Each structure stands twice: as structure tokens, then as C-alpha cells.
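Thread title: Can someone regenerate the structure for this chain?

I was given the following input by a collaborator and told the matching C-alpha cells would be attached. They weren't. Posting the sequence so someone can regenerate them.
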Amino acid sequence: MPTLIRLNIPFLFIVMIGAGGLIIAALFYRRTYPGLDAARRALLTGLRGLWMSGIVVLLLSPMLRMRFERERPQKVAVYLDHSASMGLRDNLESRPDSLNRAVEYLRAYLDKKNVDDTYFRFSHVIQPDTLPDTLFNGLTGFSRVARHAAERAFDKIFVLTDGRQTMDEPRPASVIPVYTVALGRRRALPDLAIARVEFKPEVIRLDTARVTVTLRGHAYQSGRVRVRLLENGRVMRQKIVTMPDGDANLAVTFHYVPQKKGYRAFTVTADGDVKENNRRNNRYRYRQWVRKSRLQIGLLAARPGYDLKFIRQALQHSRDLRPVLYVPVIKGVSAPAADSLEVLFVIGEPAPSQRTFLQRYIKRGTGLVWFLEDSRDQSSWFRESAVRRRLFGQKREGLIHPTEPLSTLMDIFGDPQKSRLFWENVPPLEIYNHLSGGGLHARIGQSSNAFLISLNRPFRALVNGVGLWRAAFQLREDGLMYDGYNRFIQMLAYRAARRNQQKNVRLSSDRRVYKLGETIRLTAYVQDERQQPVPGARVTVEARTDDQRYQFSLEERQPGIYEIVTPAEATGAWRISATARKNDTALGQDALSLQVQENDAEFTNLRADTLFLKEWARQSGGAFLTLTDLKKKRNVPPLQPLMEKRTVEHDLKNSRLYLLILLLLLTLEWALRKKFKLI
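Best answer:
Regenerated them for you:
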């Protein structure tokens, strides 16, 4: 039954309407034929007054509010920490056993109360605790626990944890009372851990590779630490270093020369003089792909010059590219084998002795970059139509401007704003149109820049480089122009070395090595054959390891740029491929590889963070509990049933009951008038 009934119209106003209705009805029945006695006159006057007043009230849009109250059990959620640190078992404690005892004490208390309880387990993900689970893995995040509880409207929550937040997220702010139960040791023990291992996922055979190991000490006394790099159990390199006192980091770098190509498995270990209680974070394994050799980039020029010098320097700045010179006037330099080159840079007009080699190379259909100093001064040999057609075809013009989103070739820094700053600082250069025999293939840069890029397959580029290296090396002394020029030349070489068709989809990540639980940012650039951004495409990504597979879609942030941010949820080598489609038409695909390393953050500090747990409980209006408090039922909430109040509103204009009552009043008055022979 409702405990309160109220109209949105004041009661006095309703009384006035009723009184007015009765007065008007009385005027109607003041004189009748045949005459009526007082009782019959009063009955008919009341009926008419009621339905007339009811109609007037109906015109005022009346709303009837009714409030109901009922008791209901409290909704209680219990969150069990299943992160990696909660699986710790050593000679001082067993956290899984402590967690099981806490669950046993809490479940016994909740079973005696009339509550609706739900159990969850959490680390960097939250799952229902419906099945037995002995796996403790992942990082700890409490903000997502607070959000999870708020979204499901729980009345109170219990969090059983050691309080060590290892995910990169803000501290939780909860509006629901939180009862934290601290598990784990209360004092810090000396611990040495491998915090991070930095390496390139891909290196070159017989080239120097580098791996940097960051050691982290916690409550660690100064002592010697032996760091070793092993391959298949064989020690390749080792160093003995001294760790500083207290909490400190120390970086150790190894250099080695890979001897065999293919995937190689390595292990890094750290062994100290100080006795540690936890040694599971003193070892790290990773895999590395060893490639056969560097990409061979041929440099063909009739004579030495500044263009040759600076292009060679730009290629030498990359560890994966190896320039091979073919300049006849330099003693000891002979023509390389055409099939040994991945890409050929032709710088200026080739000498007559080089043209046979050039024609033989062109027939192979391999990547080619023609770097012209002044395209208007070329000989008739270069302008002859057969050479032009064979090199660059008859593509139509495509324009690319230095505005966001930048094309894949212009985004040389991976940062659109920085890349755009470079292109805006390159001074305008001359355009020479008739070399392509049918207009420009593409124009990159400002409206008067002279980079002519061919879009035919295989990749062929015609670059009119008047003033480019002068702008990069003479007019600008800052590192932006120098670095940008080098990156542009290197990107031309990488692009031309692919030997397949122009990629319309390019997938990239913010880095290639992650820790478990860190954020992976994937970006896909989707373009058409004229290198223009394609908006409205559907980009799906598939991520695979040896035993896991995920699929998700990217969101469009800007026209042609699609992104997603996702946590690294499993260790190992990941192969990630992206496919773009629009209107059921495939636009292209791209792929890359990532490494996800084990995260030692869960074992860097094994002491329970009771200060954080007390503050979180105090801020939310809950309480901080220990295992003893749970066992003896101290400081636990009473969990009495709640009185739930609910308000229901009814619009009387749409109420069938109200309209039915008015109809009954009208019908009753009509029937009585007929009975009394007034009609």
C-alpha cells in the first residue's frame, strides 16, 4: 500500500473547483418540471457538480504521486585480489592461504545476514568468482573496482587485497562504503628485481646487438650483483656490478654479435650477495629475430657530389641499411650485382657506362628512387618517352599537402605535428611537370615543392631535390631539419624495398616492447591509391600468440586515422594484423609484431600497503579490517535490511480509471434524470 498520495494541484484549489461545480449544478436544478423533492434534487446536483469539477481538474494536467516503501536485503560485493603478488608463497607467508581464510570468515558472517552477496576476483581485469581458480596473474588496479561497483549499484563492498596498486591509473574515489581487508606482510624485506629489459625485436646477423637490463632494489643493502645473459643455457656475457643502498635502479648494458639467423631465445639473470626471500623476479626470458643481412641500397652517380654525400650519410644513420656505391670515377668501385640490391638510388644523370647496368636493373622490377638536382637540364636520353614510360608510367596527378593527417611518406617522425613543422620549414622548390609524360604523379609538401612521387608498382620515386639538402644542412642548424632529411631518405629506401604494391593500410604502435598490463596504442592509417585519407572505413585487428587470439575494431579519430588503446593482457610474442574495408570492399592490410614482457611490479614491494587501504576505507565511509577483525567479527558492518522508497507518478489525463469514473458519473446522472422523467 502507498504511504503517501499527493496531487500536483493544491488541495484548496481543488476544493474551490468542487464548490464552484456544485454551485453551477445547483443553478441547473433550481427549477425542474416535473418538480423534485429535496433529496432527489440534492443527488442530481451532486452528480453534475462532481463530473463538471472532474472535467475542469482534467484540463489542469493533474499528476498523482504515490510513494511506496518496502524492506530489501543489502547488495554486497566481495572483490578478491587475484593479481600476481597474491600468489606469493615463501617461508614467511602464503598469501593464497590467507586469502582463503579471509573468504571463509567473511562468507560465514554474510551467510548469517539477510544480504544479496556477489563475489568477484580482480587483477587488471574483473571476473565473476564462480569457478575454482588457483591462477594468480596480472597487475592490480583499484579504480576499476570502484567503477565496477558503482555501475552495478552495490550498497557496500569488501576488498580483500594487499593494497599494492601496480597499474598506471589514478587512486580510486568511491561513493560506496568500502571495507578493505589487508592481507600480506607488514614489513619490507630486501628484494632485487629485473625491472625492465630493453632490446630490439629484430637485429641483423653478424652486427652488434645491444640489450639493456634495469635492476631495481628495494630495501636492498649495498652489495655485488652478478648479471648474466644466456642463450640456451650458455653464458654469452656477464657483468658484476654494485647495487646502491635502499630503493634504487641500476642499468646494465650488454653487447653481443648474433651468429645465426632466425628466432633466438635469451635469458637474463641477476644474482646478489644479499639473501632474498623472493627470487621469482630475478630472471627474464625474451626472444629476438635475427635477420640475415642489412638491406643493400645502391647509390649510382656519374661523379661525387653533395647529393651523393648527404644521401649516403642519411642511409648510414640507419642500422638496417647499407649503402653500396657505384661511381665510375672513384678508383676501386665497380658495378654491384643487380640482384644483390634491394633499392637503387640514381643521383643525377647516369654516365654512359652506367646506363646498361641501369636498364638491366629496371627490368628486374625492383624499387627505384631517382634523385634529380635540376630536372630541366636532363639530356634527351632521360626525356625519351620509352625511358619515362618504363620508369614512371602514365599516372594522373595526386596532390598531398602538409596538413593533418599527413601521408605515410610525410609522417617521418611518427608525430604529425613535428613532421608538419619539418615540411613547413623546407623552402618552396621548383616543379618540373613534363618528365612524367602526363602530369605529376604526386606532389608532396607545399604547393610549390618539387617531390614527384610515382604511385605505380613496383615503387618508383622521382625526387626533384633542388635545395633540399641545402635547406637541411646549410640554412638550418637545428637538429629537426637534419634529422627530418635523414628520415625522409631512409623512408624512401624502406618504401622502395618492399617490392610489392603500394600499401593503402599502415599499422603502427607507440613502441614494440611492453610490460604486462601496460597500455598498447595501435594506429592504422588508411589511404586510397592517391595517398588520400579514407574516412568511414571499418578497420578490424586480429592479435595472435601461440595459444591466444583476440579480435577488435579501431575507432576513427581523424579522417583516415583509426586508433585503439588496449592493455597488454598476456606475455609473449604477439602478431597483430589490421584489415580495412569500406562498403564491403577490401582496402588493404598490414601487420606488425610486439613483445609483452612479464611485469615485476607486483613483486617489487611485497609489504601490504595498509596506509592506502585505511585512507580508501575512510574516504568512502567504510572501515579498515584485518584478518583477526574478520575472524572475531570486529568493525564489520551490521548489514541490516534497507528501507527502499519508490515514487510512482500517474498522469490522470491518460488514466483509464479516471476517465471511467467521469463516464460513470455522467451515465448515472442521465439514468436518474430518465427515471425522474426529466427527459
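Confidence is low (pLDDT under 50) at residues 393-406, 428-456.
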